[in-house]
Write a structure and sequence with these properties.
Structural class: mainly alpha
Number of helices: 3
Shape: elongated
Oligomer: single chain
Largest sheet: 2 strands, antiparallel
Radius of gyration: 17 Å
Strand order of the largest sheet: 1-2
Strand content: under 5%
Length: 110
């Protein structure tokens, strides 16, 4: 289960990153907005996987696999941060191209 969820997070972040870079290079608003829509999916998958890992680790306090769980938690955190950076790039490019501020959940035409 954990590895499947981890793959889903990585796949979504890979798509976000590709869309953010493509959106930056081509100023493609659709690709940039897609990044914003995937950010919530990544956050939800990340949170669910972390919760599962903590629950499982608490049930097995002396489990030698605990080191692997800790490493996986760190990897998930860093991958999720890559998704956050892709979202930030998209927000700034949307502002440059459209004059639309979508940061912090708001949409304001400037």
């Amino acid at each position: 289960q954990v590895h499947g969820e981890t793959r889903r997070v990585v796949k979504a972040v890979r798509e976000m990153t590709a869309d953010a870079i493509e959106g930056l290079c081509t100023q493609n608003q659709v690709r940039l907005e897609r990044v914003l829509s995937l950010e919530g999916v990544v956050d939800d998958l990340h949170d669910a996987t972390v919760e599962y890992l903590f629950t499982r680790q608490q049930a097995r306090e002396k489990d030698p696999a605990g080191v692997r769980f800790l490493a996986l938690l760190q990897v998930l955190h860093h991958v999720e941060r890559v998704g956050d950076h892709a979202k930030n790039i998209s927000e700034h490019v949307l502002y440059m191209v459209e004059g639309t501020d979508v940061r912090h959940g708001g949409i304001t035409n400037l």
